[in-house]
Every structure is written in structure tokens, then in C-alpha cells.
Amino acid sequence: MKTMSATVASKEFGRFIDAAQRGPVLLTKKDRPVAVTVSVADWEELVFLRIDRGIAAGLANLEAGRLRELTDASAEERLARFQARIADV
Questions:
Q1: What top-level class would CATH report for the domain 2-38?
Q2: pLDDT computed for residue 69 by the predictor
Q3: How do the domains of the chain map onto residue ranges?
Q4: Confidence of residue 47 (pLDDT cuts 50, 70, 90)
Q5: What is its biological role (predicted)?
């Protein structure tokens, strides 16, 4: 992964953007990593991977019986438990 200081990135923004199109760029400030910049295509791929992983986890929970239907009664019960907890704080 390419590394670039925040100072250089700001002074040479065009080069910074071009580098991010080719691959992730690690930005540093005072020699400490502070951010990673990726292309829009890479970002979209990461978002879709997270969504796919979340769907897979939800389906696994459903198949394992770890989920239950949210009804009006169960929602009211959860709200009452929450209100009791925050009243104690």
C-alpha cells in the first residue's frame, strides 16, 4: 500500500487522487497512520461485501433459531425493560 503524508497529499492533491485510483493510500500525520483513501470502486465493493456478510449472518441466525418475531407485545416489553434500566441510572 502506498503511504503519503497529509502535508504532501494536500500540496500534491492531483497526485494523491491519482494514487488512490490505483490502490489504497495510507495517509500519515507526524509519522502516524491517520486514514486510508480508496477509489470509489473499491469503496463500493467494500460496502457490498459488508452487506453480504450481514445478510449471511442474519440467515445463519434465522436457521439456528436465534431470532424471534417482533410483535407489538414484545416491542412494548422491550421498551418497558429499557425504560426501567434508564430510570435506575
A1: alpha beta
A2: 82
A3: 2-38, 42-87
A4: very high
A5: Antitoxin component of a type II toxin-antitoxin (TA) system.
